[in-house]
What does this fold into?
Amino acid sequence: MNISNNNIDCGKAFDWGRVSKDYAKYRDIYPKQFYDKIVDRNLCIKGQNILDLGTGTGVLPRNMYQYGGKWTGIDISKEQIEQARLLSAGMDIEYLSIPTENIDFPTETFDIVTACQCFWYFNHKQVMPIIYNILKKSGKLLILYMAWLPYEDKIAAESEKIVLKYSPNWSGAGEIMHPIDIPKEYNLDFEIVYHEEYPLKVHFTRETWNGRMKACRGVGASLTKKEICSWEQEHKKMLLEIAPSDFDILHYAAIAELRVKK
It folds into this structure.
């Protein structure tokens, strides 16, 4: 399904379904520290009913399943949900292919609603009241994010240059460490109770970093097959020239915990 938003890549259409297999293979990359931060906040653990918005290939539910929470994941892309179900074989996780704006769960169904790497895609005027309605009165909205730091990591910077050559309006470039932006719509019914931003290193090989970059919105989700082929040849050549066989890429992660106002 093609998605376009004037606030993202100047409106250039993208489709996560086109890159679902690469997404499943190369984007399950959050380090243990990322999940530990969530558990340390007593979130997404045993006894809690959790809805994961924009679940993609189910990265968050699959990796946090061990902590005992009851997970449901939704995503607009049928192909992403297909991968999530395959990768979650043997786990009691429900996956549904529906846009976040169209979810229709009963009032006060969930203890936690999570949104990992997807919060900026939503129509918040529609979504905020829905989240508020489906959360219990003591419920939490947990927003999560991780990105590489191109101004501090040479390999990330060179990779971004090649993406921008093929997708000059790609708005995923140029990240710096900062708190997650919370749209004003949430001020009415939610309050921020915690946020944290912290650096972390993520390990890659040339193959897995190339796959990670290929599975980003500016490449696999939006370019033509011919463009992707050209991009990949150029990106692999660059990695052979400047990157060792395996390496760490400097990232930062951010967490924002919002609570339903009493």
Remarks:
- The first strand starts at residue 49 and ends at 53.
- The two ends are 38 Å apart (CA to CA).
- DSSP finds eight helices and seven strands in the chain.
